[in-house]
């Protein structure tokens, strides 16, 4: 288990990835519905993965500026516990998605400088959780999953009205320090537990969860 810090392993694509996340002691697993990502899964793939997830492993759908038709299609097929909005959704859209689907919504906010911090308060007022991630580099073709960390001192000691998760460039080697510096009680990882983009590595997943628990 990961002590009292909860771990989300994102970008799972194979049943063996779900098994690895569960076996390691992760609290959440994430499925990416974003075609430009090497971690993208179809609705049918996600359904198979979600059905294979054991009780106790919360299933999160990551979407980027998804419209209602897209969310309807996902939620009509895939048993899910949470929606992760990882695009440029507004606070109004976050509130609308919560109302329409009745699932907890986690809103991702990209951080590069102190000027980005007020967004965390804005989304903390409407979302069920906030995901504090690195802002993507200029020219990136995806808004997350870029193996990029931000300056953790920007959020050291800060708290918001809702639970939050730390993301961005976390690895088995740096996650313990990230938790120590930020006080995070939840962490999210994708690239840092892969052997190649989109290919999860069971040994790295186990090492990541173990490192969080140390
Ligand atoms: O993982 C992706 O490909 C992805 C695509 C689009 C939006 C978000 C994505 N991933 C999320 O980004 C953060 C950080 O990822 P990493 O550990 O730095 O690779 C994490 O929340 C992922 O869920």
UniProtKB/TrEMBL annotation:
InterPro entries: Aldolase_TIM, PRAI_dom, RibuloseP-bd_barrel, TrpF_fam
Catalytic activity annotation: N-(5-phospho-beta-D-ribosyl)anthranilate = 1-(2-carboxyphenylamino)-1-deoxy-D-ribulose 5-phosphate
Domain N-(5'phosphoribosyl) anthranilate isomerase (PRAI): 7-210
Keyword Nucleotide-binding: no
Pathway annotation: Amino-acid biosynthesis; L-tryptophan biosynthesis; L-tryptophan from chorismate: step 3/5
GO MF annotation terms: phosphoribosylanthranilate isomerase activity
Annotated EC: 5.3.1.24
The UniProt record lists the keyword Transmembrane: no
Homology family: Belongs to the TrpF family.
Listed name of the protein: N-(5'-phosphoribosyl)anthranilate isomerase
Organism of provenance: Poseidonocella pacifica
Top-level taxonomy: Bacteria, Pseudomonadati, Pseudomonadota, Alphaproteobacteria, Rhodobacterales
């Amino acid at each position: 288990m990961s002590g009292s810090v909860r771990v989300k392993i994102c970008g799972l694509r194979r049943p063996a990835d779900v098994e690895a996340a569960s076996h390691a002691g992760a609290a959440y697993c994430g499925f990416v519905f974003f075609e430009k990502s090497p971690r993208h899964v179809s609705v049918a793939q996600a359904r198979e993965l979600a059905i294979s997830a054991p009780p106790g492993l919360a299933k999160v759908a990551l979407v980027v500026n998804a419209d209602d038709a897209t969310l309807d299609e996902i939620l009509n097929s895939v048993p899910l516990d949470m929606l992760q909005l990882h695009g440029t959704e507004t606070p109004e859209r976050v509130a609308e998605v919560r109302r329409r689907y009745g699932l907890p919504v986690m809103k991702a906010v990209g951080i590069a400088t102190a000027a980005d911090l007020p967004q965390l308060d804005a989304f903390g007022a409407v979302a069920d959780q906030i995901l504090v991630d690195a802002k993507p580099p200029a020219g990136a073709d995806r808004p997350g999953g870029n193996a990029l960390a931000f300056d953790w001192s920007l959020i050291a000691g800060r708290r918001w009205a809702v639970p939050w998760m730390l993301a961005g460039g976390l690895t088995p080697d740096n996650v313990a320090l990230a938790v120590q510096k930020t006080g995070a009680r939840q962490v999210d990882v994708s690239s840092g537990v892969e052997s190649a983009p989109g290919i999860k590595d069971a040994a790295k997943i186990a090492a990541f969860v173990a490192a969080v628990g140390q």
